[in-house]
């Protein structure tokens, strides 16, 4: 029988999944329009991608690890204060805003240096364009930070919906703005010489405006928290020092992850111009993140809040149960999504590229990332369990291990190219596969460490479930690939243009999912009942 708390998690998951789905779909449309503006393969598109990714990278260095690892558990605990956490959260927001403003200012001053870290070996004209875009894009650091601070506070207070729905504002503004650029300038601007200062300002400014709107939307829901924010610079005596100690490890972890990502992109820039490089990798990652975000964040985020509460209360048995249930539920949905995207990799990639040939090369990058999808989901739960216990030190060490593997595999990719083992067109795909290998090894190590800490986390139970999902996914993927071949394969109509690529995905998806569910029914998978309960929550009236 469903408990009230489980029901609450189910409703929260449904809200998060719906919001994430709409957000990701509009994000895909945003990227489609952006590709029409600047292309997918070329010097100009990679220059913009490098610049527009910098705010995400710098923001992750400043805030993401700290927020995820530290802030949510601390806000949950602050709710027990006499004032309901008002003083603590006001001080936290004041400090966070100051840090974000300083970080944004420093990033703007360091823009040329930041670009050179990623594109230092690129042609001078391409680097100059990337630096010009960076000056317009780096202010996003402030707005990303405010969005995360407000959103994580809403999540910690069990107000789950707005955090996932707010990015739609960013996507709508960007879609409209990019469409205006196409109309104003008469079509695609794919050459470096096409980008004059006014055009750079419009594209970069629109990108930042969208992120600012995304943060502003969340403020409309702040009253639901019952908290009253006010500037408070008296930062002593409310536990912010403890946050600093906990955040130290996550900050170091973010530095390592940032360095590894910079190195990957620097290697990938070797292929910029005529082959898949940074822009294609980011678009492939966007497709990869669609199932991950919809499924993992919608199910995992409410579990993390509940898991934090159980850990704070010392209820280890409940934590173990949370881990097992969440991984099994995530695994069921993710393996079906993985099979679907694998089967439709080429037509899906055609949506974000300019030709069938580009789509084939981009599909290899997507497949490289997909190899690590399931392990990334398991890591999401395992890593956040450590965070729920206030342990940021252990995740630091297994993340450092992963970063070392990422650097090693990226270096291995360029060595393979230099020794004519792989062509330059496969460099980005090899880097993506290396990241998946590194993430899988990291997840194995992290799971073992958590098993030791808690004296078991029902590993055999959820591993056996994953095996069932894998057995069902194999014939499902084969069936979907067979449909793709029947539609003409790489030379068929599904790769003719963006719209036929989307149509191909729509045709392939139900075949894959039907075979997947049918196979699990034959295997009598108990997760089918749980999954049907989750799906029913999306039906009208539920």
TrEMBL record:
Keywords noted in UniProt: Cell membrane, Cell shape, Membrane, Peptidoglycan synthesis, Transmembrane, Transmembrane helix
Q: Look up the record and give one Gene Ontology term from the biological process aspect.
A: peptidoglycan biosynthetic process
Matching InterPro entries: Lipid_II_flippase_MurJ/MviN, MurJ
Q: Name one GO cellular component term.
A: plasma membrane
Which GO molecular function entries does the Swiss-Prot or TrEMBL record give? lipid-linked peptidoglycan transporter activity
Q: Where in the cell is it found?
A: Cell membrane
Entry's transmembrane regions: 12-38, 58-80, 92-115, 127-147, 168-188, 200-222, 243-264, 284-305, 330-349, 361-382, 394-417, 429-450, 462-486, 498-523
Write down the superkingdom of origin: Bacteria
Question: What membrane topology term does the record carry?
Answer: Multi-pass membrane protein
Broad class of the protein's primary localization: membrane
| NCBIfam families (alphabetical) | murJ_mviN
Q: What is this protein called?
A: Peptidoglycan lipid II flippase
